[in-house]
Automatic annotation (TrEMBL), chain A:
Flavoprotein found in the keyword field: yes
Flavoprotein recorded as keyword: yes
InterPro entries assigned: Acyl-CoA_DH_CS, Acyl-CoA_Oxase/DH_mid-dom, Acyl-CoA_Oxase/DH_mid-dom_sf, AcylCo_DH-like_C, AcylCo_DH/oxidase_C, AcylCoA_DH/ox_N, AcylCoA_DH/ox_N_sf, AcylCoA_DH/oxidase_NM_dom_sf
Domain Acyl-CoA dehydrogenase/oxidase N-terminal intervals: 6-116
Protein name as catalogued: Acyl-CoA dehydrogenase family protein
Native organism: Anaerovorax odorimutans
Matches recorded under Pfam families: Acyl-CoA_dh_1, Acyl-CoA_dh_M, Acyl-CoA_dh_N
TrEMBL record, chain B:
Pfam family, one: ETF
Biological source species: Anaerovorax odorimutans
Family annotation (PANTHER family): ELECTRON TRANSFER FLAVOPROTEIN BETA-SUBUNIT (PTHR21294), PROTEIN FIXA (PTHR21294:SF17)
Electron transfer flavoprotein alpha/beta-subunit N-terminal domain segment(s): 25-227
InterPro entries (alphabetical): ETF_a/b_N, ETF_b, ETF_beta_N, Rossmann-like_a/b/a_fold
Name recorded for this polypeptide: Electron transfer flavoprotein small subunit
Matches recorded under Gene3D superfamilies: HUPs
From TrEMBL, chain C:
Membership in a protein family: Belongs to the ETF alpha-subunit/FixB family.
SUPFAM superfamilies recorded: Adenine nucleotide alpha hydrolases-like, DHS-like NAD/FAD-binding domain
Name of one Pfam family that matches: ETF
Organism listed in the record: Anaerovorax odorimutans
Descriptive protein name: Electron transfer flavoprotein subunit alpha/FixB family protein
UniProt domain Electron transfer flavoprotein alpha/beta-subunit N-terminal: residue ranges: 9-168
Amino acid sequence: MNFNFTEEQEMLRTAFAEFVKEDVAPNAAKWDEDDYTPTELMPKMGELGILGIFVPEEYGGVGLGHTERVMALEEIARYSAGLAMMVFTHQLGMAAILDFGTEDQKKNYLPEMCAGTKICGLAVTEPGGGSDVAGQKTTAELADGQWIVNGRKCFITNSHIADTTVITCKTGEDERGRASFSAIAIDKGTEGFAPGRHENKLGLKGSVTGELIMNNVKVPEGNLIGEVGKGTPIAMKEIGEVGRASMTAIAVGILRGCLEDSVKFANERIVYGKPIAKLQAIQFHVAENRVAYEAARLMLYRAAAVKDAGKPATIEFGMAKYFATDKAADAARRTIELMGGYGVVNEYAAGRYLRDAMACISSGGTSEIQKIIIAGDTLKKF
Amino acid sequence: MNILVCIKPVPDPEKYGQLKIDEKTKRLVREGIPAVINPADKNALEEGIKLRDLKGGRVFVLAMAPEFSRDKLIEALAMGADEAYLVSDKAFGGADTYATSYVLAAAIKKISQGIDPQRDLAFDLVLAGNESADGATAHVPAQTAEWLGLPHLCKVSRLEAGDESENAFRAWKRVEAGKAVFQVNGPCVIAVSTEINKPRLINAMGIIKAKKKPLTIWSNEDLRLDEKTIGLAGSPTQPGELITPDLRRASIDLGSDAEAAADEIVKIMKKAGV
Amino acid sequence: MKKSEIKKVMVYDQGLAGQPHPSFWQNMAKLQRLLQGEQVEFVRLCCHCENPQQAVLSIEQVIKAESPDLLVIAATPLGEEVAPALGVRLKTGVAAHCADIVINGEDRIAYMVPAFGGKVIGEIFIPGSRPAIATVKPGVFSYDKKDAADYREILCDCISEDSCGLRIVETEEIAQQQSAIEKAELIFCGGFGIGSKESWQKLEALAKKTGGGAGCTRPVVDMDWGPDEYYMIGTSGKTVRPKVYIGFGISGAAHHLCGIKDADIIISINNDKNAEVFAASDYKAVLDANQVIDRLAEKL
């Protein structure tokens, strides 16, 4: 068992951190305040190799794995969880195309997405629920070599900025009469396809979340991703692994923010003539922030290693996602309390951490959903 | 155009606030301060890469540093350099700028021999950052040039290569009276200041490619320099004690109202007679 | 080198024959004070070649013929290039950017040299080689006319630029909009926190209005907000000694503090309450730099 990153991974982290220091850290608070989505950074992140880091070189990527991908997300989320949300959703759609698309689709879509000149998204959730994949009402019917898509998706990240969105929709019934679903890529500007509501979120601001409305949208038959009727496994695999890995990485980034900010504040804040770091009550908070961060980080990178080894990692990511997001919210609250009055002043990032962490809990499967998945696996195994 | 860029790993200048002098040993405690490529050297590397991309050729990087600094050379390769050389030997330790530049010049000659033994120097240009963040003497570029018998120019804020036939560079530099443009015949040593460009960020592809690029490590067994001419023994200057200057002042607060603070400042100025 | 071993001190001056560079007076006076009571000959080596290679080749011969024990060079853009080159050519040690030159307890000459951005100052000795060379930033040593004493003057014959691989092909004089900051009694200094070109222009306007000088720190130069290195204050820029220094948006990196430590009064404005500059200031205000700049513009 080796707990060290490779020299190459350490260098990648340093390179990501340099970018974050220059372009993310100084602007993160403002993006949050204005709920501004910095899409202008996408080409730069493309050039740095962040967006397509897990995509093979032949499709314009870097050819590394998900360990490196979540490293980049952790670094970004340390300062801006919202930006990390946009980046990973882009990658989520790319992963669906990479894992299930045809050679032509990969060649057609991925290079520009790796370069950050085109933005991608993945839309599954509907007003009826997110994790209830079988309850989806969006439909697609094949007629004259075109899919006619109708329906409405909600709580979709990148809804208003994606150039291409992979949506799941009902395309028929299986032999036992159950609805079967497929995944279809729809490009921006296709007639009848438009974003709807733009949600005003509690946290993860800076990423756009909203509705996608499909009203008799005609999509070429060739835009089908994967086989007809195999849309559910696509959604489950990408959300279950890429999505939850990313939510965990964002939570780990927030945890590091809480840890670093609480230490800095404890050392600098002088009360009764000495830094509050000398007080045991404060030390307890700092210690808990440290343990939460380290534990969540171990779970994240272990799960990523399992995935990179080519093994199923849904349960590992489910556990990591539940633990890390839950601990991030705890740590953010603790950090606010540690800061006293300053904790509730928006000049300090602690309040933003709490809002972002809470938003993480609800995204990519709630804690309850994760626990159901974990329990299902556990009851079988132990 | 073959370009050699000298780089130096230094403790991260953004963390110099954490430096302390050990009360007992009187030596600098730099624990916990990571090494980075000297900032101005990154500008030199950026300039070298840009010139190569414009004119063709290869960029070589050279550092004299402990062997654990290997990763800084890989970083330079990841930025876009083609080959890296690290000269590393305990015998080089404690060198001042005179002895350091002597070793660098010897290494440059040896690298040059490997590229083209027929030429006096296989490089058209040697670039370096004007000064290191730690020692900040700004001596090494000029001294390396002198050992190599090359023209040199420091604090260059803009650089252009002439036509192939010219084998000369135009270099902009602030001088006492104003701004001057120099023509410098190649091969030459140019030391750049940080305003010359903005170094590129390293990208993931660069890091992967860097692993496949040649990195050579030489000790003094390869350079074969007389031990009396290198390291502390070869240094005409010798270090003594270190002190931390005490710059503390009263730090009287002028309050948090801009209007009132400005009034106070005007009062202080009047009282001081300015 | 022991104090008693110094028989000849040479100060290289890039000024014109009858018009020494201000730093010449500073350095000569400092050395004469330091070596008061010793039998020492003081020499001014005057060479006004602006081309560094030409200057090196021209003065090298004179130095060899004169063989001084100590050679002091102003760390101007020219001097900073000439000194290390001479170091190698004369096979001798060079102490860079001395913050002070002192005689220590053992009667040895020690050059006090800043390192790590001025965070520490280290003693440097040049025990064996001659001449010991020291560079000193203009303004580091104060000068009062009454300090000046006798010295012998050598006017150097400059060799032709044709023999140099380095030639000056264009020069552009910069008309000073303001008094040189090293002489200014009032300095408005801008750091990264001023945030824009417009703010730098406001500082220059303040300087012009009050007869003071406008200076800056490294980030302002690198961000291209207007000033070049000529306006930079700190160990790699100028050393200033105004009556009042007002810093706006300056974090307080040690190399900048070293350049302002001789100011009579230091006032700092920065919206970061933890800015290191505050501890080194006589007065501080945790305020937005631009707000205070605008208020001052109204009041001055």
